[in-house]
Amino acid sequence: MSSSSGAAQPSLNGQVTEKLNRTNYVLWHTQVTPHLRGAGVFGYVDGTASEPARLHVTKDKDGKESSEPNPLHPLWVREDQQVLGYLLSTLSKEVLVAVTAITTACELWVALAGMFSSQSLSRVNNIRTALINAQKGNQSVASYFASLRGLADELATAGKPIQDDELISYILHGLDVDYQPLVSALDARVTPVTLDELFAMLSNFDQRMAQF
Description:
This protein is mainly alpha-helical and 212 residues long. It folds into two domains: 1-116, no CATH class; 134-212, no CATH class.
């Protein structure tokens, strides 16, 4: 990763708009992950850029071992600490005080995931409940779609993505009785409707309803 450090630093200097606190882990994770991936340093947090040995051991022709400092180790330490420093700068004080003993980027990443895993699970359950109970009501088609797609995006961010056909079922479930002719027509289709097609159909249906 040494060749990427010069390019990585400008990206890692970017500030996140929401520092990690006790309630926004999913949002924080969504913000910092692209910074890390874009800088080419995500391996330092997911463990794939593992720490090299401190010493390089060799054997001579007689089998006698000798060791010398591994030049890759201080390089890894330097760049790991850059990533660690970036992550620490994105934490609120209330979270920072809980991780002061951590010394590597991967340790911090794993610790934060563990600290907030139950919160994430609770948030996933709340999002699923919101999808089940969603109602279009007086919202425009665009607003209704945006709200449900936003919930689906949150699930994906939390590692629990749903398929388009499942999202479509939630969308249709939230329509009132006025949309029953359209829902019946969709049920009779041989090929499944896509999200884009459904959006267009609902928009056209609303326009016709407004005319009459």
